[in-house]
Amino acid sequence: MLLLYLFSFFLNNFIGSNLFLMRLFVNRYYPVFINVYTIWILYLLFFASFRYSPTILFEIKTVPFETINDYTTNVIKWNKIEFIKNIFGNIILFIPYGFLGILYPKLNQFRWMVISFFIIINILEFSQFYFNRGMADIDDVILNTFGAIIGFFIYKKYFFIKDR
């Protein structure tokens, strides 16, 4: 929650003064950015060199909050960087997908954005398992969707232009 507050503070104080320029930039260049960004995310999920490690378990984790609980109780004790990368990385990496309403007006509705993103991220998680590129973890789906929801609210508050 503190991270969200600090991010909101940054947006209000530093970006808010040039909001018109930021809106123009985001609405004009987001389509290019999100395509390049998606290719990069897909590369990380399926082709990055760490995906070929023999220590990666190829399994499906279906118990909600099991991995998050494991990271908050065990991993943070001996590897804080791994905790930050996994928990916050899964959230922060997917914030830009909350802006998809720029490309697809139906996704300006919260319900459709969450449903669409949830379905797509489930397909990606299962594909990681199916192609032996990692585990399919429901906690990743939850954290990724939470990131997109944060992005959606940032988009609606700061960048959404009703008159198009």
Would you kindly provide a written description of the structure presented here, covering whatever features stand out?
- This protein has a two-stranded parallel ribbon with strand order 1-2.
- The two termini are 33 Å apart.
- The chain has helices spanning 2-15, 19-46, 66-78, 80-92, 110-130, 138-159; strands spanning 60-61, 136-137.
- It has one domain.
- The protein has 164 residues and is mainly α.
- It is 68% helix and 2% strand.
Strand-pairing-aware structural class: mainly alpha
Rough outline: globular
Q: What's the Cα radius of gyration?
A: 17 Å
Order of helices and strands: HHEHHHEH
Mean pLDDT: 83
Biggest sheet strand order reads 1-2
Described by its quaternary structure, the protein is: single chain
Overall tally of structural domains: 1
**Helical residue percent?**
55-70%
- Total of helices: 6
Largest sheet features: 2 strands, parallel
Question: Uncertain regions: pLDDT < 50 for 5+ in a row?
Answer: none
What fraction of residues sit in β-strands?
A: under 5%
Number of strand segments: 2
Distance N to C terminus: 33 Å
In short:
By secondary structure, this protein is mostly helical.
Topology, pairings included?
Elements (H helix, E strand, L loop, with lengths): L1 H14 L3 H28 L13 E2 L4 H13 L1 H13 L17 H21 L5 E2 H22 L5
Parallel strand pairs: 1-2
